[in-house]
Design a protein that fits this description.
two-stranded antiparallel sheet, about 110 residues, 4 strands, two-stranded antiparallel ribbon
Length: about 110
């Protein structure tokens, strides 16, 4: 077999993120899952009692806006922030994964 350039994850070296391209995505997903799970648990078990909204996410916080609205918007902003983190630090498909021909684009055949 011909020599080939090292590919991320084949034991030829590199950083931890390039060795496991899904590691950063898994960490960010876990962080969002924890935040969202907390939101759902508070909404399900600590907001209503006896059919009445009496605390948790129904509590008024800023200018009479319920905490649930602020927390929900926080989840949306947090998801956007995690997407920006992944875009900045995640693996680059065009530079790390390349094509099967050693990362070089396929040559175009001349037209007849």
């Amino acid at each position: 077999m011909a020599d080939r350039a090292p590919v991320a994850g084949d034991g030829a070296g590199g950083t931890a993120v390039s060795d496991r391209p899904g590691a950063l995505a898994l960490i960010l997903f876990t962080a969002y899952l924890a935040a969202y799970s907390g939101f759902v648990i508070v909404a399900a078990f600590f907001t209503f009692s006896g059919g009445e909204a009496n605390g948790g996410l129904a509590a008024r916080s800023v200018d009479g806006v319920p905490l649930g609205v602020i927390a929900g918007l926080g989840l949306i902003v947090g998801a956007f922030a995690l997407a920006l983190i992944y875009a900045a630090f995640g693996p680059r498909a065009s530079t790390e994964h390349g094509s099967a021909a050693g990362g070089q684009p396929a040559a175009r055949e001349p037209r007849a």
